Amino acid sequence: MFRQLAVALVFFAWAHPALAQGHAGHQGKEAAFGRQGDPKKATRTVSIDMSDAMRFTPAELVVKQGETVRFRVKNSGKVLHEMVLGTMQELKEHAETMKKNPDGAHHGHEPNMVHVAPGKTGTLVWQFTRAGEFNYGCLIPGHFEAGMIGRVRVAPSDTK
Fold this sequence. Notes:
The protein is globular, with a radius of gyration of 16 Å. The protein is α+β, with helices and mostly antiparallel strands. The strands form 2 sheets. It has a 5-stranded mixed beta sheet with strand order 1-8-5-2-3, with no helix packed on it. The relative contact order is 0.26. It has 2 helices and 10 strands.
C-alpha cells in the first residue's frame, strides 16, 4: 500500500505541473522547426483552441522566420489534449510511440509541447528560426489519427 501511494505521489508531482503549462527541458536546443523562445522576446501571442471534435482552431498559421510566438493554448474539451510542434515525420513517429505506450511515461518534458487539462489554458513559446512548413498535433492516442493536426507556414525573413 505504501509503495502504491509513493508511486502515485511521484506520478502526480510529475504530471500535475505539465497539465496546464509547457515544459522547460532542452533549453536552447535547435530543432528543424526552431527552438524554445524567450517569453520576453515574443513578438505576438496566438490563441489556439483544442476541442473534443479533435480539431485545433485555427488549424493553419503563418509566421515569419525568426519570429518568437507565444501560443496561448486552451482546452475547451472534456478530455486531456496537447499541442506538440514538429515536422510531420516527427509527429507521426511520436504518435506511433504514444499508441504503443498510452500511459505517456515516455512523454518527456520538451519545450515544443504543452499538455492542457480540460477547461484549462497552457502556454508554449517558440522561435521559428527556419523557413518552411511545420506542424502541430495532439499525440494522445487516437487524437492525431482523428485529424487533430495543424500547420505552421514559416515565411522567409526579408534579408535584402
